[in-house]
Amino acid sequence: MSEPEIPVDEVTAPWWEATRERRLTVQRCRACGRHQHYPRALCTGCGGTDLDFADVSGVGVVDAFTIVHRAPRPGPEVPYVVARVRLAEGPVLLTNLVGADPGSWRCDAPVRVSWRPLPDGRHLPVFAPADKD
């Protein structure tokens, strides 16, 4: 699937840099310890601004998903699966599911992170069945 250009700013830059090494990170608030994703300037728990990034396991479960049969723009091959994946550490990522027939996915399916390369050396985290290598 071709990817549109994804911008980087001062808040998201550390997250994107970690993807160059295929490391999945989430923000962590130093004040209250809450983990959150997507990267943002404030903690969603306490409103604090002392945030850093922590590596996470990359395992989780499918929280919800939909199968896209008609692409919203030219380029992506259909069908593909857009999903919410709840990481073991708590945060939810909006992502794609790969590595299985689109019609075979179920909520609560265990998944692990996989990586889709981007043209600039970054990688986009996608998720595959946890039981596949």
Automatic annotation (TrEMBL):
<dbReference type="InterPro" id="IPR052513">
    <property type="entry name" value="Thioester_dehydratase-like"/>
</dbReference>
<dbReference type="InterPro" id="IPR012340">
    <property type="entry name" value="NA-bd_OB-fold"/>
</dbReference>
<feature type="domain" description="ChsH2 rubredoxin-like zinc ribbon">
    <location>
        <begin position="16"/>
        <end position="52"/>
    </location>
</feature>
<dbReference type="Pfam" id="PF01796">
    <property type="entry name" value="OB_ChsH2_C"/>
</dbReference>
<dbReference type="InterPro" id="IPR002878">
    <property type="entry name" value="ChsH2_C"/>
</dbReference>
<dbReference type="InterPro" id="IPR022002">
    <property type="entry name" value="ChsH2_Znr"/>
</dbReference>
<protein>
    <recommendedName>
        <fullName>DUF35 domain-containing protein</fullName>
    </recommendedName>
</protein>
<feature type="domain" description="ChsH2 C-terminal OB-fold">
    <location>
        <begin position="55"/>
        <end position="116"/>
    </location>
</feature>
<dbReference type="Pfam" id="PF12172">
    <property type="entry name" value="zf-ChsH2"/>
</dbReference>
